[in-house]
Amino acid sequence: MGLWSWIKGLFGKGSQDDEDEGKPLISLVLLLREPRYLDVEMLARQASAAWDKKIGTDDSEGNDGFVAGESPAFILHLGEFFFLVNNFSTPYVDDPEAAAKEMADLRLAKAMADHRAWLSVDMLGEAEGEMLAKAYRHIGKLIAALADTECLAIYSPATSRLNVYDAALDEQLRGPDPLKLFAEPTFVPVVTVADDDPRMQAAVDEARRRWPEFVAAFEKRKEGEHFAVKSRFTEGAEVEWMWSSVTAIENDVVLGVLDNDPVDIKKIKAGSRVRISVADVGDWVCVRGDDMEGGFTIKVVADAAEQ
User: Of 30, 138, 158, 303, whose CB is crowded by the most CB atoms within 10 A?
Assistant: First the structure.
């Protein structure tokens, strides 16, 4: 019996069977823009770097662990753990576009619709307590090593949480509790609300009617206070409403810095200096200490995200 057959026999059912039975899968998944080439030598090097251990392609003496198999599935051994590393050149779900349509957050929907392959690190077997925490620390470090610019999103089967992938997440993946990265979205969620939604129309109308209040407050601003506007940005046929921190107001123009990255618009990004016509402003907020004024559209967007 070969090593591969022996390991599969040792653990019996695979991770997909565990998921089908309703058991929480101890795993992290990367949704990829394009299929990834991966072989045992590459995986051994990446695991060695991720874990600061000597991972070989066999169980020779002197190795801390080993890798066996070939794409789309590898077995990786380290100490008391065996991991299954999946590398599939197909979407993670049967119909990515249909799945994307069920997602309120346009960033997540775009990542789901655009991915064409996936890669995961799953623990084989069951664990709880410190053993479970240790397994996730190993998984997080290896996933961080395997991630690259082709990664669109990261998914936790155990919690059913999906987050847009960004290199800034690597620090959390290598930290003591990788699952914490799912506590908050990587970027500010972008949610579609119909232009003719009566709640949104009423919120925008109130923000525009009370615009002089924002201007007056900004002119009397003190250090530590924050002022921002939500406005319309366009690029060709693309239209997105985004928040910008205000730095100046000059007659009918607001000067500021874009607070979040667009989904489809390419000419600007978070941190870009922007000039906004007051006519394009649809909401505003003043944050002074623990008090916030404005934010008329926030609840409408939040309600839409939960639908």
Answer: 30
DSSP, collapsed to helix, strand or coil, labels residue 212 as: helix
The HSE-up count of residue 160 (CA atoms within 13 Å, CB side) is 5
pLDDT of residue 262: 85
The per-residue pLDDT for range 89-137, each reduced to its tens digit, is 999 999 999 998 888 788 888 899 999 999 999 999 989 999 999 999 9
235-260 pLDDT, tens digit per residue, is 998 888 889 999 999 989 999 999 88
| Structural element, H or E, at residue 283 | strand 281-288
How far from 60 is each of 2, 65, 70, 168, CA to CA, in Å? 15, 9, 19, 36
Is residue 3 scored above 60 in pLDDT?
no
State how far the Cα of 244 lies from the Cα of 157, in Å rounded to an integer.
Answer: 34
Q: How many residues does the chain have?
A: 307
Partnered with residue 29 across adjacent β-strands are 120, 155
- Which residue carries 């990542």 as its tokens? 111
Answer yes or no: are the C-beta atoms of 204 and 296 closer than 8 Å: yes
In words, the CATH class of domain 198-306 is mainly beta
What are the extents of the domains in the chain? 3-182, 198-306
Q: CB-based burial of residue 104 (10 Å sphere; 0-12 exposed, 13-18 middle, 19+ buried)?
A: middle
pLDDT value, residue 1: 33
Return phi, psi of residue 276, to 5°: -125, 130
